[in-house]
Amino acid sequence: MKFRIKKLTIVFALLISSPLYSQTDSTANSDEIIINDLLDESSTETDNSELIDVIENLTTNKIDLNTANSIELQKIPFIDFQNAHAIIAHREKYGRFFSKDELYSVDGLSKETVDKMLPFIKIDEDVYLPQQNGNNFFTNFYTNSEVIYRSRIMNDLQKREGFIDNNFSGTSIKLYNRFLWKKEDKFQFGLLTEKDAGETSLNEFTSFHFLIRDLSIIKNLVVGDYHLQFGQGLALWSPYGFSKGTNAIFPAKKEGSEITPYTSSNENNFFRGAAFETDWRQLKLSAFFSKNFFDASIDSINNSIISTPLDGYHRTISEIARRKTSNESVAGLKLGYTLPHELSIGLLYYHSSFDKAFQASSLYDRAGSNFNYYSFYYETYFSSLNIFGEISFDGKSVASINSLQFSNGKDFGFIVSIRNYPRNYTNLHGLGFGEGNNIQNEFGIYTGVKWKTYLGVINFYFDQFKMPYRSYSNPLPSNGNEFLINMTSKPFTSFETRFIYKYENKEVAANLENKSQMIRRRRQNYRFEFTKRIGVNISLKGRLEYNNFMLDETGVKEKGIMLFQEIKIIPTASLTINGRFTVFKTDSFNSAVYEYESGIPGVLSNLALYGEGMRWYLAIKYKIKQSVGLSFKYSETYKPNEKTLGTGYAMINGNVDNAILFQIDAEL
Prior knowledge:
Helix content is 10%, strand content 51%. It is mainly beta. The protein starts with a helix and ends with a strand. Among the domains are: 70-128, Tex RuvX-like domain-like (DNA polymerase, domain 1), CATH 1.10.150; 204-408 and 424-432, no CATH class. The chain contains eight helices and 34 strands. A hairpin with a 2-residue loop joins strand 22 (478-492) and strand 23.
């Protein structure tokens, strides 16, 4: 099969030129808005469903407009400190909000900002109702409760090598079940189970939690599984979060939710135990304890930890052998002090101990079994300026990030951030802003600008960084820089265009003339995208993307191109049909094109498309009634010139990779 990119480009152009309608795109949900406006497809093929968990947690635990402080309001995507201060100033001047629509009258908030805020905010009327005798939480324990249930089953239709060779002990079905019970905003109980393809047990991974919030002296109490987010993530953060993306401002500043129940199926880097938070006036005290088992490869001679695999797979004999072979105990305290509109500071200490020592493979790798972390983080305001940062000490060295943000609230925002992560700073539970995945061996300066002009909204960032010492992947020091510009325009109410240019210039390791050395790798991405509404019930999204890849010293030059067309149809209020058709052609995996793919609530993957072929999917969501929904998805990748797809255990003998997914969502 020969794909004719030229003809498809013509179809793409015709879709743009068809008649426009001035209707609001009400079909776009909050998940899709954030994916479009915050996430830039990374050059790594991953399952990013944890980021959807972040979004869903924000939409299910909405921020109350009448009680939230500035820090809480800034947890809402797209909201900066000036927006938060404008909302609080309006509330102090005119009294509490009676309707979310009142936000449109707040001086300093644009209509676009308010539109994006709405899925994440609420107005809690019960707070202002007079309390009657006998009408308290305990006498009405079973009233005003909410049950949220999700069950998902996924299966590949092609047999992969791991099953053909009987290396996998279980079935090919992947299962996911999550149960949440909530009593207003006071109590919550959650239970999650998951089985990956190839695993045996139906609940191979199990997570649970119980939450009490705002009850007497208890500000927040979680028993079971939880994660911690403090400061800018240098000492403690959840195992996932937003990084550099198409929004140049928001991801560069972390707004920690501090103690949060763990509701993800990621099997690593969460805590299991109890965490408590209380406050008194401007002071807030948090305490936490955890003892959790994790996967580790163990040296049988000296009983030390060689590595900690993070894939969460337990399918083969070797994967099962490393399952929960080590454990970590963590205990810590955090003390915070806040002056509204002026200052917020925090002091954090925690101790981490392992039942086995880490075996270092190089001079600056983690070694030993006992670790102490100290952190100081701060945030202060001066009119249109916001200064924030964190300094963390691990007993050997100090990691730091310090940032300055300017905003006028509506039209212009600017941020500059300087990070310094020493080569001998090690931390398993941090997730700081930067280029690498670890807070180690990196110095960088990030500059971001967001500017609303009459032509549209321009997001621009430039990040320059260096790794002063050799690392596991690079045998020598390295450096690089990254540049992105994102221009979003909305010439009509029903029509939006987006142009993105991204340039990466990095040093990577290569073996030339039997000698390991650093060479310059350059990659450029050009992307044009549009979204458009036709009538009331149909919306279109299209993308044309081109990239080129170069290795300077070797003369390697590659290119890749991708074109997709997506359509969403809502024929009735209870039925949504969403489909995407993609064609792609790249010279190799080096020039792969990436696309986020969802279509199903709670599922988000970043796919690498390379070689020559096509991919398509069809997703159908149907509400049986207001509280129960069914979702179905069929996806297929076809590469006509290949005889096998994938590698290793995931290899398919054939040129078709297809899968089905079925999901039930219920809210009772």
